[in-house]
Amino acid sequence: MTSPEHDRSARPAGPRPARPRSTGPEPADTGTAAPGPTGLSAGLAALAGGLLHSLRKRPGDADGPAVRSVTQDELTYTEVIAFFTGHRAASGGARAGTVLRSPRRGGHLVHLHFVDGSSTPLPNAPSAVYRVRRLDAELTAAFGPNDLIVIS
Predict the structure, then answer these.
(1) What is the average pLDDT score of the chain?
(2) Threshold 0.70, pTM exceeds
(3) Is residue 52 part of a domain?
(4) Looking at residue 96, what is its pLDDT?
(5) Position 23 in a domain
(6) How many CB atoms lie within 10 A of CB 105?
């Protein structure tokens, strides 16, 4: 025989009452804003912001070269490395390069950008956006489960 607390038919019908999520006191309002992103998230936020800034540039803008946009069927790991090695001298002292992939219907957008030592994109450095249907096996393996590669 089951006790009433274990017998489902002994419970009243209807939804269960909500359980309190916290029994502690309410946090005091200190009047300060929540801290901003730190560490890796701050670097990624800066990188994304720089990429968006770069994407808005047009040929002839005063603050640096426009982003080179390329549409092709496949992007290879060799092409990515060739971009960074071929443009390193014009990068303005870049410490690394970033490769950011964004899935799109029918393929990917792949952004190539130079960054400084604090992972801030260099606005005057060469950059490129590739619209591709697929990535070669070597580049796909380099990404793994991530959408960002940092090349130093």
Answers:
(1) 74
(2) no
(3) yes
(4) 95
(5) no
(6) 4
Residue 34 CB: number of other CB atoms within 10 A?
4
Q: How does pLDDT run across 60-74, given as a tens digit for each residue? A: 444 555 567 889 999
Q: Is 62 exposed, middle or buried (0-12, 13-18, 19+ CB in 10 A)?
A: exposed
Residue among 101, 121, 111, 133 nearest 67 (CA): 111
Q: Is residue 15 in some structural domain?
A: no
Strand pairing partners for 107? 104
Reading the block at residue 105, the tokens are 């219907």
| Residues forming beta bridges with residue 5, ordered by sequence position | none
Structural domains in the chain (count): 1
Structure confidence by residue, pLDDT tens digits, 1-14:
555 555 555 555 55
Q: What is the DSSP string of 64-82?
A: SPPPEEEEEEEE-HHHHHH
Instruction: Scan for tokens 């912001």, then name that residue.
Output: 49
Strand partners, 126: none
Host domain of residue 80: 40-151
Within a domain: residue 115?
A: yes
| Cα separations in angstroms, 104 against 3, 74, 96, 137 | 57, 14, 26, 18
The total number of residues written for the chain in this structure: 152
